[in-house]
From TrEMBL:
Protein name stated in the entry: Response regulator containing a CheY-like receiver domain and an HTH DNA-binding domain
Domain HTH luxR-type: 158-223
Keyword Transcription included in the entry's annotation: yes
CDD domains noted in UniProt: LuxR_C_like, REC_NarL-like
Any Pfam family hit: GerE
Residue ranges occupied by any Response regulatory domain in the UniProt entry: 11-133
Gene Ontology terms, MF aspect: DNA binding
UniProt xrefs under Gene3D superfamilies: 3.40.50.2300
Length: 225
């Protein structure tokens, strides 16, 4: 029987086909305040099942694995039926050995909150987990733009839901897609940070998106940047 997870801790699932790597990362995470590893998986298929069974807050997902790779596992984790069945949201951080990995871009398109290189420091790893748990991305706006511009060479038609946004909400969406924080957006549109948060919430609700990362993906997919 595993020890109970302390109240308020961020629950982490490790997914990698190398047992030694998982063991090392688990030690790093469990040594951090408010972070607890609740399970491990050796391939993408195990990861999808573990997310359903363990309800982690954040998944560290290796991109290249046998049986089912991290891209397909991410797609299945964020399948609409699975998302609707969850009581709490789950975030995915893709782990890769290559910077600006095209597979990482596809995983982000499927719902991942960004990627982290496997040689990241323990501090970077811990900060990334906390960051995505809060609904933010773990890569800079320029990196995200570079990845997604290559991913969406052909722009999709803007969906009807976009027409529900007010002029100010469209302005805020464009600024989010450029990587601006709520404080920076507030300064740009002469509004308080709390007002910007209200606009962001309305954008997410009207477009049926999960977080700011998905707003960026939406903007690039439909040529709104």
């Amino acid at each position: 029987m595993t020890d109970p997870v302390p109240d308020g801790d961020i629950r982490v699932l490790l997914v990698d086909d190398q047992e030694l790597f998982r063991a090392g990362v688990a030690r790093i995470i469990n040594a951090q305040d408010r972070l607890t590893v609740v399970g491990e998986a050796a391939d993408g298929a195990e990861a999808v099942a573990a997310v359903d069974d363990l309800a982690p807050d954040v998944v560290l997902m290796d991109i290249r694995m046998p049986v089912l790779d991290g891209v397909e596992a991410t797609r299945q984790i964020f399948a609409p039926a699975r998302v609707a069945a969850r009581a709490t949201p789950v975030r995915v951080i893709v782990l890769t050995t290559f910077n600006l990995d095209d597979r990482a871009a596809t995983a982000i398109r499927h719902g991942a909150s960004g990627f982290l290189l496997k040689d990241a420091t323990p501090r970077m790893l811990a900060e990334a987990i906390v960051t995505v748990h809060a609904g933010n991305a773990v890569l800079g706006p320029q990196e995200l733009t570079t990845l997604l511009d290559g991913e969406f060479k052909a722009k999709a038609a803007v969906p009807a839901a976009y027409g529900q946004l007010t002029e100010r909400e469209r302005e805020v969406l464009a600024l989010i897609a450029k990587g601006l924080s709520n404080a920076e957006i507030g300064a740009a549109v002469f509004a308080s940070e709390s007002t910007v948060k209200t606009h962001v919430g309305a954008i997410l609700r009207k477009l049926g998106l999960r977080d700011r990362v998905q707003i960026v993906v939406f903007a690039h997919e439909h040529g709104l940047v």
